[in-house]
Amino acid sequence: MDGTPGLGEVSLGEVSAPGRVAGPDEGISTAELALATRNHGLPLEALAHDTSPPGLHYVLVHYDIPATDPDVWRLDLDGHVDHPLSLDLAALRARPAVTHRVTLECAGNGRARLTPRPVSQPWLAEAVGTADWTGVPLAALLAEAGPRAGAVEAVFTGADHGVERGVEQDYRRSLPLGQAADPDRGVLVAYAMNGAPLPPQHGHPLRLVVPGWYGMASVKWLRSVTVTDTPFTGFQQAVAYRYRGVTEDPDDPGEPVTLIAPRALMIPPGFPDFMTRARVVRPGPVPLAGRAWSGHGPVVRVELSADGEQSWTDAEVTADPDRPWAWAAWRAGWTATPGTYLLSVRATDATGRTQPLTAPWNRGGFGNNLVQRVEVHCLAE
Amino acid sequence: MDGTPGLGEVSLGEVSAPGRVAGPDEGISTAELALATRNHGLPLEALAHDTSPPGLHYVLVHYDIPATDPDVWRLDLDGHVDHPLSLDLAALRARPAVTHRVTLECAGNGRARLTPRPVSQPWLAEAVGTADWTGVPLAALLAEAGPRAGAVEAVFTGADHGVERGVEQDYRRSLPLGQAADPDRGVLVAYAMNGAPLPPQHGHPLRLVVPGWYGMASVKWLRSVTVTDTPFTGFQQAVAYRYRGVTEDPDDPGEPVTLIAPRALMIPPGFPDFMTRARVVRPGPVPLAGRAWSGHGPVVRVELSADGEQSWTDAEVTADPDRPWAWAAWRAGWTATPGTYLLSVRATDATGRTQPLTAPWNRGGFGNNLVQRVEVHCLAE
Questions:
Q1: How far is Cα A6 from Cα B313, in angstroms, rounded to an integer?
Q2: Nearest CA to CA, how far is A16 from chain B (Å)?
């Protein structure tokens, strides 16, 4: 097959543009839509499940889902360590396994609600999921490898490859060694999700799971863990995933995106209109329920408002103390009478962090944990 | 919790608006985005899998995924029959089971490429998937129930409930009895996908699978099959899923949407830019591969163009004659030299149907099988 190039030579910089924010009246672009049709959120009625099955748990893939072969897959643990490891899946499965129930959320959740809208994966509020992840504690593997004096970080490399804002890369992130090697942080090298091998889109055959952190830390298709004696300055650490543009300084390096801010979501009550997802109920008692989580500490309070956030009422919150990294369940009663309502819900965690009533803007559109507002119409009968 | 209604009494007509097309410069709206973040397509690199795992197989849910309990689920087969049936899952599983590999595609696939854009689920090209579906042939169940003389259709009712363009409904569709009861059409009442119980989003615990037809016919969360002696005129049959607006007649009832039009898709070569999904390759041989399918007959030809559709080259097509309802695989070679290309691919089936170079418009945005065009940049080195 012959090909006729449409242009002359191209460079990565021409193919892959800098980040930008949408114009004042700019709807979601085809590029944003292409991301939204590949990646997907949790349909909010699936908050009813304690754990989220594949296809309901949110997925965000930076590049392509790589083709991987579990029979030849190896995890290399090397760098600033005394005893480098190179383990196949059988060697990992032969080690003591643990299972943690962990709620993961995309750092960009809520981005499409910001004004101006940072142009990237356009999440509204649904980029969340909870699963039982089974694998080997990273702390145990690091102890086996023996970090040398002066080690400061562990750098995680995935097998997904692409270009982003002009930088060709394998997806790569780091954690401070103090977090990576802390048994209480519970970081896992996981090979199973909800009792089955990882699905392709969730990192098959091996991924990192970092409880409490936004999802960008939980590197999928994990190939290597490299212990370093200097902080990692790669693209996903130093350029992307920073809270920037909060100050006026154009050279602001920003603060790193780390732990998940508190959020509550409700199972939308009643039934939906297909096109708008507005909710319809009939007069009478309407049970309200959902989930709430925070990476900073346990959720201690969930509040609801049905009067445009003039008053708030406490919901009943049920958390499992043995599963500190999983979302809590909440429920509340509401009696609907005919009319149109905006139901709002917000979570507060044990550190006192709560959800704002106006969205906190930053250039990358990270950590927008604005309260959820659900439009509900109660018919006359 | 008290509530203060924002408006007085509301009606379904106020909550649920008529269909519309987007304005000339109207980007994807928040309502369309809300659908795109819930439903999801097949990430195109997943065309590499013969069957699509949950989370990669496309999903379109009209209303909410219903909460279902397999322990009490019953399928009622009634209406214009001599021996009505009411079967639990154990009774269905006790009957002879068959497994069919079936490619399903949403009738709205390609809608977001139309101008003007019908406002609904905004698919680009990825609303497809292939699975091994296991269950009981519908023909066998219908034979057991014994349709009476004069029976013309089978009406299928799902458990998902909502409102659409002002009409409150359970999702409901029919098939002509000749198709429903034809063993060669292969319609299944399925309880397993790829060897596992149906996931919630694919119809757990029971769904219809109608080979060759667009996905709207394969009713999920199937509760009943009602044989009728008059044609079904419900919303999803007579109002939605019609090719309308092809003529100038505003009262045009349209033609029903039925069989899948031919389409080929390619696994995007090289690696992507995160934001635009444009592809990057380096000079040299670039293997191209993908899938092709048609509901009208076997795919007999797949052609590729790398020169803006001035010339086309045949790809090698491999179909499994024992799996007539599954996509065929195709592959071709291409040698990339520096420059920017639009790679195009099109399928032709045994009936001579092929894919158009300009999108065939209709008001609902159905059946747009425009050729796929993938932008590829070959770097100098």
A1: 19
A2: 6
Domain assignment present for A1: no
Q: Which amino acid is at A72?
A: V
- Here the CATH number for the domain that contains residue A309 is 2.60.40.650
| Contact at CB, B1 and A332, closer than 8 angstroms | yes
A235 and A197 in one domain?
Answer: yes
Last residue of some domain: A240, A271, A304? A240
Residue A43 contacts residue B65 (beta carbons within 8 Å): yes
- Of the candidates B345, B341, B343, B342, the residue with the CA atom closest to the CA atom of residue B369: B345
Is the bond into B321 cis (omega within 30 degrees of 0)?
no
Interface residue B16 vs chain A (CB under 8 A): yes
When CB atoms are compared, the residue of A2, A11, A26 closest to B306 is A2
This complex has an ipTM of 0.96
> B62, B64, B286: which to substitute to probe chain A, counting the most A Cβ within 10 Å?
B64
- B162: distance to nearest CA of chain A, Å? 5
Number of domains in chain A: 2
Q: Does B332 touch chain A (CB under 8 A)?
A: yes
Domain that holds residue B198: 29-240
Helix axes A30-38, B30-38, angle to 10 degrees: 30
Interface contact flag, A31 B276, Cβ < 8 Å: yes
Within-domain flag for A7: no
A90/A222 same-domain check: yes
Q: Are residues A195 and A279 in the same domain?
A: no
CB-CB neighbors (< 8 A) of B53 in chain A: 54, 199-200
Q: Are both A229 and A283 inside the same structural domain? A: no
Q: How far is B193 from chain A (nearest CA, A)?
A: 13
Q: List, in order, residues 6 or more apart from A74 with CB less than 8 Å away.
A: A86, A87, A88, A223
Put simply, the answer to whether A28 touches B26 (Cβ < 8 Å) is no
Residues B311 and B277 occupy one common structural domain: yes
Specify whether B55 is located in the same domain as B161. yes
User: Which whole-number Å values give the CA distances from A304 to A242, A267, B111, in the listed order?
Assistant: 31, 13, 38
Q: Which residue of B has its CA nearest to A272?
A: B162
Please indicate, yes or no, whether residues A109 and A217 belong to a single structural domain of this protein: yes
Q: Is A230 on the interface with B (CB under 8 A)?
A: no
Tell me the pLDDT band of B7, cut-offs 50, 70 and 90: low
User: What's the gap in Å between the CA of B151 and the closest CA on chain A?
Assistant: 32
Q: Does residue B4 have a pLDDT over 60?
A: no
Q: Is residue A210 part of a domain?
A: yes
Those residues whose C-beta lies under 8 Å from the C-beta of residue B93, and which sit 6 or more positions away, are B191
A41 touches chain B (CB under 8 A): yes
10-residue stretch averages of pLDDT, chain A, 381 residues long: 62 90 92 96 98 98 98 98 98 98 98 96 98 98 98 98 97 98 96 98 98 98 98 96 84 93 98 96 97 98 96 97 97 96 98 96 97 96 81
- In chain A, residues 162-221 whose CB comes closer than 8 Å to chain B: 162-165, 168, 199-202
Q: Is the peptide bond before A116 cis (omega within 30 degrees of 0)?
A: yes
Contact by Cβ (8 Å): A328, A317: yes
Among A207, A240, A273, give the residue marking a domain's end.
A240
Q: Which two tokens stand for residue B228?
A: 């009728």
Dihedral (Cα; A349, A351, A352, A355), 10-degree rounding: -50
| Pairwise CB contact (< 8 Å): A41 & B38 | yes
**Bridge partners (DSSP) listed for residue B256:** B242
How far apart CA A224 and CA A231 sit, in angstroms, is 17
Do residues A59 and A146 share a domain? yes
Q: Residue B6: inside a domain, yes or no?
A: no
Whichever domain contains B170, its CATH number is 3.90.420.10
Chain A residues lying within 8 Å of B3, measured CB to CB: 306-307, 334-337, 339, 341
Within 10 angstroms of residue B30's Cβ, the number of other Cβ atoms is 14
